[in-house]
Amino acid sequence: MFGIKYIKFDSTTYVVHFKNGKAARQGRGLSFFYYAPNSSIAAVPVGTNDVQFIFNEPTLDFQTVTIQGQIIFKVEEPGRLAELLDFTVDSKGEYKKRDHEKPAQRLVGEAQTQTASLMQSMTLKDALRSSKAIEERIMEGLKSSRAVVMMGIVPLAVNVLEIKATPEMGRALEAQTREALQQEADLAVYERRNFAVEQERRIRESEMNTEISVEEKKKQLAEKKMETEVLEEQNGRRIRQMKVEADVAVEKLREELVAVRAENERKDADVKGYVLDATLKPYKGMDWKTLMAIGSHGMDPALNIALAFRELAENADKIGSLNITPELLETLLKDKEPGKSPGEPKRK
Predict the structure, then answer these.
(1) What is the C-alpha to C-alpha distance for residues 188 and 323, in angstroms, rounded to an integer?
(2) Where do runs of H (alpha helix) occur along 20-130?
(3) CB 52: neighbour CB atoms within 10 A?
(4) Which of 61, 77, 134, 163 has minimal CB crowding within 10 Å?
(5) How far is Cα 190 from Cα 132, in angstroms, rounded to an integer?
């Protein structure tokens, strides 16, 4: 009424009440009455704000990528921003101009500038994996931008939500990725088969080594057996040789014994011969008849009769006739009895 009005703002809005071109009051969350004909009110939001961005940028290999994200910022010096831009509101609290959108637009412009310079140094594949690098690059660019600092705005965070190529290139990359994955799968199958073959080879090699070891052990065993047999043969030969040598030694001793015995017998025979020769030497020149007569003492009468008959036979040419009666022969034969001297009476 009569141009006097009442207005109220929340706590996240910084209010500057200009009266006749001069700041009459300013602060956060103010509510007051004012005279409309000579007043203007600027309302600057000081809470955190999110601004969305999406733009297309070419890469180093002339491929277009779409980058989508958001910037979170806060107005640190609302008085300075109110001086640079028109945040005047009407009696209903609505902005008379669209300057309140310019801080967000300038932030998005600065972010696009920083992103464009980064994308021009990357290939498509690198760009699709560079969300972290883009966030850091945009944050550094906003903090060092004179326009942003001049407006008293402080960037709090930058989030890159999506980076994607054109649909055609996306399908090509998908196909390439599928082929790469298929190649990796084939490589994995090949490596698995190769590993299996390698394991089989190792198993066979181990079996062959085992067989070789077994054959080597058999060879060593055969050599040991052969050495044992050779040793046994050598020992047997040595034993036989020792026996032969012992037999030779015995035979030599026996030969020596026989020689000694023969020598002794020869000597004994020589002695006996010498004794016999010495004994018979006196009788060498005697007639045998004389010798028989000398040795007739105790001689068997039958022997004497035999000698007599021999004497008669030698002188048969000188004897005219000789009668020997059967009674004489019977007497001589009867008188000859074993164990009895001639002339002894018969035993009854």
Answers:
(1) 153
(2) 78-84, 102-119, 124-128
(3) 11
(4) 61
(5) 36
Q: Which residues pair with 154 in a beta bridge?
A: 74
4-165 fold: Tetrahydropterin Synthase; Chain A (3.30.479)
The Cβ-side half-sphere exposure at 197, using a 13 Å CA radius, reads: 6
Q: How confident is the model at residue 342 (pLDDT cuts 50, 70, 90)?
A: very low
CA angle (164 as vertex; 53, 137 as ends), nearest 5: 55
Which amino acid, residue 278? Answer: A
Residue 15 pairs in a beta bridge with 27, 43
Residue 168 corresponds to which tokens in the numbers above?
């055609």
- Dihedral sign for Cα atoms in the order 264, 266, 267, 273: positive
For 62, 69, 71, 163, 270, the CA distances from 115, given in Å and listed in that order, are 15, 12, 13, 12, 150
Q: For the chain, how many residues are written? A: 348
| pLDDT tens-digit series, residues 173-221 | 778 777 888 888 888 888 889 889 999 999 999 999 999 999 999 999 9
CA distance linking residue 124 with residue 143, whole number of Å: 27
Domain boundaries, the chain: 4-165
3-class secondary-structure state, position 114: helix
348 pLDDT tier (thresholds 50, 70, 90): very low
- For tokens 């994607």, the residue is 164
For residue 258, what are its two tokens? Answer: 């026989």
Task: Tell me if 151 sits within 8 A of 81, measured CB to CB.
Answer: yes
Give the sign of the dihedral formed by CA 81, CA 87, CA 88, CA 90.
negative
DSSP letter, residue 282: G
> Which of these, 108, 119, 127, lies nearest to 53 by C-alpha position?
108
Q: What is the pTM of this model?
A: 0.49
Task: Tell how many helices (H) and how many strands (E) occur in the chain.
Answer: 9, 9
Radius of gyration for the alpha carbons in the chain, expressed in angstroms and rounded:
80
Considering only the C-alpha atoms of the chain, give the largest distance between any 2 of them, rounded to a whole number of Å. Answer: 240
First to last CA, the chain: 218
Q: Residue range 55-61: average pLDDT?
A: 90
Return the amino acid letter for 216. E
